[in-house]
Input
Amino acid sequence: MNRLLDKTALLLLCLTAFALSGGFTAPVIGLLAAVICSCLVQLLSGSLPAAGIILVCSAMCVPFPIFFCAAPLLVYDALWEKKWWLTLPIVTVIFAGDKLTAAQYAMTCAGIVAACIIFSRVSRLEQTVRSLTELRDQVTEKNLQLAQQNHRLAQAQDSEIHLAALKERSRIAREIHDNVGHMLTRSLLQSGALMIVNKDERLKKPLAELKDTLDSAMTSIRASVHDLHDDSIDLKKIVEEAAAHLDGRFEVKLDYDLSRDAPGKIRLCIAGVVKEALSNAVKHSNGDTVRILIREHPVFYQVQIEDNGSCSEIKESGIGLKNMEERAAAVGGRISFTPSDTGFRIFMSIPKESDEQQ
Output
């Protein structure tokens, strides 16, 4: 847009120079030719034809001196094309001072100077705009990178907090089991022994009530320990550690999308199936890649383990496969095994409804 406005201003100077000519036809033809050539140069900017048009128009000033009045436009276009030397033929008209009037020479030379000044100003302006645009893009890119880095740091921090919470739950569960659980067990044994050796009828009922209270406390402690233990299971970490024990023989690709709210027995089942599947792959597969997919859907959990080793049949008596079937059945799930020449696939689905009912 700036370039068009500048060329319009230069065109007015050229028009004035053409108007100072004594005739009518030649100035009009020269002005129209100059406008057409300048438009073609801008349209073909940066190409060889654009440079050729500038050179031809400059050379036209030699046989047709009236065309010298269009020199400001030619110089301006040549400067934009970075080929100012294409306008050198114009110099021959300047030295042939008897071809045009003094006013035309003065107006045209003033236009050439104006073209150089305008080009310098606009080129610096556009360079500044380009620099600012590049700076803006760099800042935007840096901001995006920073936002991504902050997101990764936040995720890492959340993960560390989650792991610390899991470790603390596991420690509390061990403490309750090792200390309170053992003390309650000893108290139950002692109360039972007292009920056996007691001969006083008045103490039988209080002792029985004491034993019932201790039984209730033991049941409650066991449930609490079980819940704490289930909550402390980090399935993703278990799967990653199991994959790390493959000793580099397999490339493991893990696709994990399971919420932290998944019940502990579901996580234990999936962990057991994955470990058993990886163990079978090490023993029986001749492939080099294992893909593990663990995903939570609205109504069921999906687990798929697949390797690229050739396998045409299944040993139905395999203990590992039976163990996986029993684990799946224990949580109301179903598991299938699909052998083929291109790999062995294990697919397990566990409905959420059965999990809530159990």
Summary: Confidence is low (pLDDT under 50) at residues 354-358.
